[in-house]
Specification:
Layout lengths: L1 E3 L2 E5 H8 L3 H14 L4 H4 E7 L5 E8 H5 L5
Helix pairs in contact: 1-2
Length: 74
């Protein structure tokens, strides 16, 4: 979890863990949010570098609180 610019940022793995849902469902849902224009990817998604278990650095998408809250019933 990261706190930046007044919001929380989580990757899809952590969002899946919070809502106890398979990560692939999270990724599909987020894709639909951006496809329909419900949220702007530019303002709700950021890439961060993370070092994986194999020692390689990978770019990981993180999502802000607006994306995380999109899972809650309206």
């Amino acid at each position: 979890m990261r706190l930046k610019e007044g919001t929380v940022w989580l990757d899809s793995h952590l969002i899946a863990e919070i809502f106890d849902i398979d990560r692939t469902v999270i990724v599909k849902h987020i894709g639909n949010i951006y496809k329909t224009g419900e949220l702007s990817e530019r303002s709700t998604c950021a890439k961060i570098a993370q070092v994986a278990a194999d020692g390689k650095t990978r770019q990981m998408n993180t999502y802000n609180l607006d994306v995380i809250l999109s899972w809650l019933p309206s």
